[in-house]
Design goal:
About 40% of the residues lie in helices and about 10% in strands. The protein has about 450 residues and is of the alpha/beta class. It is globular, with a radius of gyration of 22 Å. The N terminus is likely disordered.
Length: about 450
């Protein structure tokens, strides 16, 4: 996903970098060079010594849950904990406003050979393009020796090259449920209990849109879902071969009839059911408490967006253990280390620690990012978690069920991110900008995809 939510930058011990927090994330689209007294090695300076001061820079987006909590930020305070365990280490973390910004800056740094952070967070949708740069990234397999069992197998596979190099360490995953406004459901005469809502929405996307028609007929003043583009994220992540043929590597996006079918199904329903609120926009943010829409696709990490937008005292949001089509994963990330880092061994140690079970449990407990670590998924701190904001929903169990429901892991290929970005733009032209008809915007999308080469 283009995960974008609240984050702040942290640097403790020698310095503190305070970055502005906002729902769309802290603003910073430019990577910076490592600020360190070390020339390489885990806490090793030019003069040698395992306890020499070292500064590790890390670039992220979204709320990875590593920061100390604030009034508007849910975090597990892991950076500070790590520095307490390693007094010679200073962590400087910076956050890009959007996943797109982080990707652009990191690609530039890889291309020029300088300017990258010691550690970079990489979204799952642009992880495939990192395979094209595997020679510029550190192989973590000698440090993380339990990679085959640490994370969900599909999570590890995406970050493993054909010759067995592990270029990314898994952070979270994004199993999807449906979040809904119980008060608006009641107003529309629909069931409000999450078990009954799950039964109501069980089925394919046709069932989801059918209930959407019923909701719209009740004239509550709200729409059924937030936007076409947001909803399409869930649909496309259930397609095993969507934009790129895994056998040939050729782009099949514009000729894949399954994509056209989903596009037509969504834009037809969206003509009456979509609130037309572009994700991460001010209007979208306000919509969480303005009775703008009744349902939305709900990967684990997005709960923080809803809470922060609506306010933790807002009553009405709930979550159902169901997803159209069975199951799907939207989002989740990796931590990678560019070879240009001056602190590779120190960065390796931090990446290893951040992706171990105890830390992923702490992140889910604090920030709702569902762990990819298999051991963490079984921890009582994860399975037993409830969410007061969502009417005390047992989110730990719900997302465990949703993770188990993921049966399709789509092949994305290195061009997926750019093609999906173009698709998001196409869908926004239909229901957000209303600048094109669905048919015209589809044709424009074909032209945009062809222009990518």
């Amino acid at each position: 996903m283009r995960q974008t939510t609240i984050r702040k930058a942290t640097a403790v011990t020698a310095a503190l970098i305070a970055m502005s927090a906002a729902l769309a994330g802290c603003s910073s689209s430019n990577n910076q060079a490592a600020d360190t007294t070390a020339t390489g090695g885990a806490a090793t300076s030019a003069a040698g010594g395992a306890d020499a001061p070292v500064t590790i820079t890390i670039g992220t987006f979204n709320n990875f849950g590593y920061d100390a909590p604030t009034a508007t930020l849910q975090g597990a305070d892991l950076y500070n904990k790590y520095m307490q365990l390693h007094p010679n280490v200073t962590i400087k973390a910076t956050v890009a406003a959007l996943s797109d910004d982080a990707r652009s800056a990191f690609n530039t740094a890889l291309g020029t050979g300088s300017g990258a952070y010691d550690i970079q967070a990489v979204d799952v949708d642009w992880m495939p393009s990192m395979m094209d740069n595997a020679d510029k990234l550190v192989d973590l397999s000698n440090v993380i020796t339990d990679a085959s069992t640490r994370w969900q197998p599909w999570k590890t596979k995406i970050a493993t090259t054909a010759d067995g190099k592990l270029i990314g360490a898994g952070t979270d995953i994004g199993p999807e449920a449906i979040c809904y406004r119980a008060d608006l459901f009641e107003k529309a005469g629909l069931p409000t209990d999450r078990t009954e809502v799950a039964k109501l929405l069980t089925g394919g996307w046709d069932q989801y849109f059918k209930i959407g028609d019923q909701f719209m007929a009740a004239n509550t003043g709200a729409y059924w879902f937030d936007s076409n583009a947001a909803t399409f994220q869930g649909m496309i992540n259930q397609v095993e071969k969507s934009y790129v043929d895994p056998a040939t590597g050729n782009v099949i996006a514009t000729t894949n009839e399954q994509i056209k079918t989903l596009y037509d199904q969504l834009t037809t329903a969206g003509a009456t059911q979509s609130a037309g609120l572009g994700e991460w926009s001010d209007d979208w943010t306000a919509g969480f408490k303005n009775d703008s829409f009744a349902t939305m696709l709900c990967p684990a990490w997005i709960i923080n967006n809803i809470k922060n937008a609506a306010g933790t005292d807002f009553k009405g949001w709930d979550i159902a253990d169901v997803f159209p089509g069975g199951g799907g994963n939207w989002g989740g990330s990796y931590l990678v280390i560019p070879k240009q880092s001056k602190n590779i061994e120190a960065a390796e140690a931090l990446v290893d620690w951040l992706t171990q079970a105890d830390q992923q449990v702490a992140v889910f407990t604090a920030a709702s990012n569902y762990p990819s670590n298999v051991q963490a998924q079984k921890d009582p701190g994860v399975t037993g978690k409830t969410e007061p904001f969502l009417n005390n929903a047992p989110v730990g169990q719900i997302f465990a069920n949703r993770a188990a429901a993921v049966t399709v892991v789509p092949y994305k290929g290195s061009s997926f991110f750019d093609i999906q970005t173009a698709m998001g733009n196409a869908l926004n032209r239909v229901d957000v900008d209303k600048s094109m008809s669905a048919a015209d915007s589809w044709n424009q999308w074909i032209s945009d995809v062809n222009a990518l080469g």
